[in-house]
């Protein structure tokens, strides 16, 4: 008779693996996850089935954390101009906290095959449109959500490639001045 599933152990392992991936990037082997969880490769595979299923679970957990963090950053606040909200969101997304997510998800954006998460690039683009539309609606400009998202993504790619935080911060600040209400 086999062991019964233990979802609480699986959750603990998944949380520890996601913490590790966010701190160090997604490893190409499971050995770093073994070290991070203090368990064995055999036990990780017991709980997740395969290496790819473990990696997919880690990506999904990290993505849940990113969505929660960024939705909070992008949420319109009563009495605050949405351009101020976007300035603060940019600081969070482009700063050290956002870098943890870029470390994990940037390779997925660059991977043409998308073996681990085939629909990632589409989701990573479209899931921010709703919060941006809602926030931009406070300026009377919800139709600009795609433009704002494209600017954020483009400046993040620029910043990642060049390391020029001062220039990309200045570019985003200048962009925000164009978002004044009609």
Largest sheet: none
Provide the CATH top-level class: Mainly Alpha
Taken from the alpha-carbon principal axes, the silhouette is elongated
Reading the helices and strands in chain order gives: HHHHHHHHHH
Mean pLDDT: 89
Helix amount, in percent? Answer: over 70%
| Class from helix and strand fractions | mainly alpha
Please work out how many helical segments DSSP would assign.
10
Uncertain regions spanning at least 5 consecutive residues:
none
InterPro entries: Homeodomain-like_sf (IPR009057)
Protein name: TetR/AcrR family transcriptional regulator
Features:
Homeodomain-like_sf, Tetracycline Repressor, domain 2, 182 residues, 0% strand, 73% helix, elongated, mainly alpha, TetR/AcrR family transcriptional regulator
Overview of the molecule:
73% of the residues lie in helices and 0% in strands. It has 182 residues and is mainly α.
Short synopsis of the structure:
With 182 residues, this protein is mainly α. The chain is 73% helix and 0% strand. The protein has helices at 7-24, 31-37, 41-48, 51-74, 82-94, 96-110, 120-126, 129-137, 145-162, 165-177.
Topology readout:
Layout lengths: L6 H18 L6 H7 L3 H8 L2 H24 L7 H13 L1 H15 L9 H7 L2 H9 L7 H18 L2 H13 L5
């Amino acid at each position: 008779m086999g062991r019964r599933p233990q979802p609480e152990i699986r959750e603990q392992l998944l949380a520890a693996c996601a913490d590790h991936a966010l701190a160090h990037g997604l490893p190409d082997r499971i050995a770093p996850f073994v070290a991070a969880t203090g368990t064995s490769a055999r036990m990780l595979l017991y709980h997740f089935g395969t290496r790819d299923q473990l990696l997919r679970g880690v990506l999904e957990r990290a993505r849940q954390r990113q969505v929660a963090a960024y939705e909070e950053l992008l949420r319109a606040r009563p009495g605050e101009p949405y351009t101020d909200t976007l300035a603060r969101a940019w600081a969070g997304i482009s700063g050290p906290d956002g870098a943890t997510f870029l470390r994990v998800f940037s390779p997925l954006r660059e991977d043409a095959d998308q073996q681990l998460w085939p629909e990632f690039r589409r989701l990573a683009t479209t899931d921010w449109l709703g919060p941006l539309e809602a926030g931009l609606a406070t300026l009377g400009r919800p139709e600009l959500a795609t433009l704002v998202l494209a600017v954020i993504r483009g400046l993040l790619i620029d910043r990642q490639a060049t390391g020029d935080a001062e220039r990309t911060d200045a570019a985003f600040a200048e962009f925000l001045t164009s978002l004044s209400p009609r």
